[in-house]
Design brief:
- With 298 residues, this protein is mainly alpha-helical.
- Helices cover 55% and strands 4% of the residues.
- Strand 1 and strand 2 form a beta hairpin.
- Helix 2 packs across helix 4 and helix 6 packs across helix 10.
- It is globular and about 60 Å long.
- The N and C termini lie far apart (62 Å).
C-alpha cells in the first residue's frame, strides 16, 4: 500500500512495510479479487482511525472496534457489508497478533450485525425489459453485452472485468462463461442462454481483438466504470437504485422462479453455502405487497 499519509510521520514508513507484508500474505491465500476487497476494507478503517486523531493502529481497542461498527451502520452500509468489513479487520488483527505486533485481536469479539430478514432486492420482469431497452437505445453493444452477462449469468462486477476473451464461449446451441477466480478463489462455469449468446456473438464479431471490455482509451474497463454504465442505463430507463450486484440478485431470482433447484442456482452463482442462495426464496417487499392486495375488497 502506498502513500499512507494518515498514519503519522513517526511510524508511517514502518507501518507501510507491515501493510505490504500483509498484502503479500493475502496473495498466497486469497484470490486477487478477495485481496483487493480485504485491503480496501483495511484502508477504509485506517482512514477512519486517522480521522479520529489516532496514528497508531496497534493501539486499537475493542471499544474502537465497536465504535467503527457503529460508524459503518450510521453511514448506511448494509448488514452483510458491515459484517464483511469487520471480518476483514478480524483477520488482519489476527495476523498481527500471530506476528507478535499486537498483544490481542480487538475485533475478535465484535458482534455481527443481524442480517435483514427480507430477501435481496432484484429487478422485476418489466424493469429488466426497461433496462435492456435503455442500453440498446444507447447503441453501445459493449454495454449491452456486459449487462447481459450480469443479468443472464450472474457475474459479479469484479468477475466481469477480469474476463479474458477466451473465457467466453459462444456456439450456435450452447455457450458458457468461465470465471477463473471467483469469490474464494473458486473457478466455475456458467452456461449462457440464447439471449445472452446472441448479444455476445454480435459483440465478439464487432470487437474481434484486444481487451474484451475496452475503454475509450483502449485499456480495460474498471469496476467503477462498469457501475457507472449501469447507473446511466438505469437513469435512461427511469429505474432507481440499480447496481451491478442487483443484476446478479435478479439472475438468481429468475432461476428460482423458473423452477431451477437451489443447488444448481448455487453452483451457477458461485455461492459457497446453500443458505446464501436460500435468501432468494424469502419474499420481497413487493411480493408481500402483492399478497396483501389480493385480500383487498376493492
Amino acid at each position: 500500500m502506498k502513500n499512507v499519509v494518515y498514519l503519522g510521520k513517526k511510524m508511517a514508513h514502518n507501518w507501510e512495510s507491515v501493510l505490504e507484508r500483509y498484502e503479500d500474505y493475502l496473495k498466497t491465500t486469497r484470490a486477487r479479487l478477495s485481496v483487493e476487497s480485504y485491503m480496501g476494507d483495511l484502508r477504509l478503517f485506517l482512514e477512519w482511525l486517522g480521522g479520529r486523531g489516532e496514528d497508531n493502529p496497534t493501539a486499537v481497542t475493542p471499544l474502537d472496534a465497536s465504535e467503527y461498527r457503529r460508524f459503518l451502520a450510521d453511514k448506511g452500509y448494509k448488514p452483510a457489508t458491515i459484517n464483511r468489513k469487520i471480518q476483514s479487520l478480524r483477520a488482519f488483527y489476527g495476523w498481527l497478533q500471530e506476528a507478535g505486533i499486537v498483544p490481542d485481536n480487538p475485533f475478535r469479539r465484535t458482534k455481527a450485525v443481524p442480517a435483514q430478514e427480507l430477501a435481496p432486492r432484484w429487478l422485476t420482469r418489466p424493469e429488466q425489459a426497461a433496462l435492456m431497452r435503455a442500453v440498446r437505445a444507447k447503441g453501445r453493444l459493449r454495454d449491452e453485452a456486459m449487462i447481459a452477462l450480469m443479468l443472464f449469468a450472474g457475474l459479479r462486477v469484479g468477475e466481469l472485468v477480469a474476463l479474458e476473451r477466451e473465457d467466453v464461449v459462444v456456439r450456435e446451441r450452447s455457450g458458457k462463461v468461465v470465471v477463473r477466480q471467483g469469490k474464494g478463489n473458486k473457478r466455475r462455469e456458467v452456461p449462457l442462454n440464447a439471449t445472452a449468446r446472441d448479444i455476445l456473438r454480435r459483440w465478439l464479431e464487432e470487437n474481434p481483438t484486444g481487451p474484451l471490455w475496452p475503454s475509450q482509451k483502449g485499456g480495460r474497463l474498471s469496476k467503477r466504470q462498469v457501475q457507472k454504465i449501469v447507473e446511466d442505463c438505469a437513469y435512461i430507463a427511469k429505474l432507481k437504485d440499480v447496481t451491478c450486484h442487483k443484476l446478479r440478485h435478479t439472475f438468481c431470482k429468475n432461476l428460482l422462479d423458473a423452477g431451477v433447484s437451489i443447488d444448481q442456482v448455487a453452483a451457477m452463482a458461485g455461492h459457497s453455502r446453500l443458505d446464501v442462495t436460500k435468501r432468494y426464496t424469502v419474499p420481497s417487499m413487493q411480493d408481500l405487497q402483492e399478497a396483501v392486495e389480493r385480500t383487498s375488497w376493492e
